[in-house]
Amino acid sequence: MLFLENLQLAIEGLRSNKMRSLLTMLGIIIGIGSVIGIVTVGDSMTASVTSAMEGLGATNMLVNLQSKDADRSASLNNIGGASIKEEDLLTDEMIDTYMEAYGDSVIAVSLSNAGGPGRAQEGRLYANVTVVGTNVGYGTANNVEMISGRYLRDGDIKANRYVAVVSDKFVSNMFPSGKNPLGQEIKVSVGNNLQTFTIVGVYKHEQTMMMPSFGPDKDIRTDLYIPITTNRAIASIDRGYQNFIVMLSSSVDARKMVVDTQNFFNTFYASNPRYEVNAISMESMMSAMTTMMGTLSVAVAVIAGISLIVGGVGVMNIMLVSVTERTREIGTRKALGARNSAIRTQFIVEAIIVCAIGGIIGIVTGIALGYLGGYLLDLPTFPTPFIIVVAVVFSMLIGVFFGYYPANKAAGLDPIEALRYE
Amino acid sequence: MDEMVIEMAGIIKSFYVGTPNELQILHGINMVIKKGEFVSIVGQSGSGKSTLMNLIGALDRPTSGDYRLDGEDISQLSDNELSDIRNQKIGFVFQTFNLIPRSNALRNVELPLLYNGVAAGARSRRARELLELVEMGDRLTHLPNELSGGQKQRVAIARAMANDPSIILADEPTGALDSKTGRLVMDIFHKLHRQEKKTVILITHNERLASETERVLTIVDGRIVSERFPAADPATDPAAGQEG
Ligand SMILES: Nc1ncnc2c1ncn2[C@@H]1O[C@H](COP(=O)(O)OP(=O)(O)OP(=O)(O)O)[C@@H](O)[C@H]1O
Ligand SMILES: [Mg+2]
């Protein structure tokens, strides 16, 4: 019944003391703002990682060399760690025998080696690239989407051909005139080498969160795919692989294949004192990632909870001051016939309003922070309506919780004492 | 067939009850006030006038003794019931006005109506009407700090009248006002008494103003020691006191 009147009263009170109201709200604003900001960025990251992983395909499996030495066995650590000797690496022969045994269940084996950053140059035109040596399966397993021409073929690999598949970005940089890039020769400098490749295909470049780009669009570095054998020769890379991706046919039991694959490759390493093979499905990597994100969310929630409690205590403190300041007013209201419950409601509503306004300012701040974070990390950002509703409700609950004690104190004042208060 | 609004018998009020410094302020007050009477209470500072007023107004409970308000025994009522009695039967007017500083005149007058559950439209109509009665109809949206002392007290009186209570309790309502403004306020009490048939109980230090009422009770050290009917004494007839 008194809610609207109390609302009006609370707003009158807040307006008459703007600075103090703002300072009181600050804790809530910071608390809610940081939650919304962090959650927004976190959600965008999760969405982006998930879509990147889905791009890789849930039925993909990573086969990875892993140290037998327990200290260095953290499974992801030695991806890209360069110190494995050639004699320990997984070989083409092992993969061939694997394919003989399991070929029916496998769509593609994706092999690659890194050629490093390079630059294609033709007069004033240039394009930044990352040279990647790949086999045919790489294109399949990574869903490389061809716009024109073709991906690398077995023949290119066997014959160490100097052919390349480039991105649409690369094409727009190097062939601004719209000339057909297929069949064109390009000169690419990688390290100290200058190599000439013939373009056989163009793929669609997709921005992923794994490779956020900074700086002007023109300088974006895109992958330049060349035959893995060619790259091996150019960059004098060891034969063999530390890891590779196997794309499983969707009809097979992925979990069983992971176990079988791991066992299969480990037969080659039974007598190897240093390394063994570990196979892991993308699905379980993804769920590990999701779990990690979940843990992160809980951590954020805890921090936010603490900051909101601090904010709430601030509100309680100001409400207690306000009750003391308005002791005579409370006495007067009681003399005019206000029941204790009416006084209590008045102060709780006031606390709720402070917290709700703080919460709303916090939401706006948080969304702004989320967009800023998304912009800096180059992520598509969408604030989650759910978290906003939760934030508003939660901040109002803080108002109720931390407003209750001061409000109860006000309600319990003896009318005579309150009226005599100087 | 006079109807009694206030009947007090052997009222004792002590503070700090049950502690070593227990302090008895009222020592057995016996008092009866008729409906529609205009009574003043005079006495030295600290004699217990305000304490008695608080008991009459159901703001406080007596330590012992019997108090009936409109025939109802007050001492047995709950806090909420006392709130309702204050809301509907009593109108308080204070020396220091006690207006809510952040609310304008209209909203101050609406307050007792609000606590009585009167709907917004009716509330504002009634409040306007009352403010016009005290000639404050042109100051509806003014905040208390934009009003003079006399104007504040008129708003406070309008507020006391909000729920049409039968009793108006005024504790030194002219104490903070100059004599001319005090006169104006006093005239309003006369009007409430004569036209609205209210029972008015006035605490004052001003003998002149006390003599304008129908009955003057003198309180000394927590006891009513004398009772006087000024109308019976032509020398202090209110009609004679014309200077302001
Ligand atoms: N709530 C209280 N607690 C303790 N002592 C009180 C309380 N209220 C009043 N007293 C004491 O009771 C005595 C009477 O106070 P009261 O306010 O009734 O006097 P008064 O006649 O109204 O005086 P004044 O004319 O100055 O207003 C004083 O000595 C005062 O200190
Ligand atoms: Mg007094």
Series of secondary-structure elements of chain A, N-terminal to C-terminal: HHEHEEEHEHEHEEEHEHEHHHHH
Give me the number of helical elements of chain A. Answer: 13
Strand fraction of chain A: 15-25%
**Sequence stretches where pLDDT stays below 50 over 5 or more residues of chain B:** 236-244
Count all strands of chain A and give the number. Answer: 11
Query: What structural class do the secondary elements of chain A suggest?
Result: alpha+beta
Largest interface: A-B, 25 and 28 residues
**Whole-number tally of structural domains of chain B:** 1
**Could you say which small molecules are bound to this protein?**
adenosine-5'-triphosphate, magnesium ion
Query: How many domain units of chain A?
Result: 2
- Which value, in Å, is the CA radius of gyration of chain B? 18 Å
Shape of chain B: globular
Distance between the termini of chain A: 32 Å
Mean pLDDT rating of chain A = 85
- N-to-C SSE string of chain B, H for helix and E for strand: EEEHEEHEHHHEHEHEE
Give a written overview of the molecule.
The complex is a heterodimer of chains A (422) and B (244). By secondary structure, chain A is α+β, with helices and mostly antiparallel strands. Chain A has helices spanning 3-15, 18-56, 92-102, 136-141, 154-158, 168-174, 228-235, 254-266, 282-325, 327-335, 340-377, 385-411, 415-420, and strands spanning 60-67, 106-110, 112-122, 125-134, 146-149, 163-167, 185-190, 193-203, 222-227, 243-248, 275-281. In chain A, strands 3, 4, 5, 6, 7, 8 and 9 form a 7-stranded mixed sheet that branches. A 4-stranded antiparallel sheet of chain A has the order 2-10-1-11. In chain A, helix 2 (18-56) packs antiparallel against helix 9 (282-325). Chain B is α/β, with parallel strands linked by helices and 244 residues long. Chain B has a single domain, classed as 3-Layer(aba) Sandwich (Rossmann fold). In chain B, strand 7, helix 6 (179-194) and strand 8 (199-203) form a beta-alpha-beta unit. Residues 236-244 of chain B have low confidence and may be disordered. The A-B interface holds A 1-2, 4-5, 9, 12-13, 16, 328-329, 331-342, 415-416, 419 and B 54, 57, 59-60, 79-80, 83-88, 92, 94, 98, 100-103, 111-112, 114-117, 120, 159, 163. Bound molecules: adenosine-5'-triphosphate (ATP) and magnesium ion (MG). Residues 15, 23, 25, 43, 45-51 of chain B line the site of adenosine-5'-triphosphate.
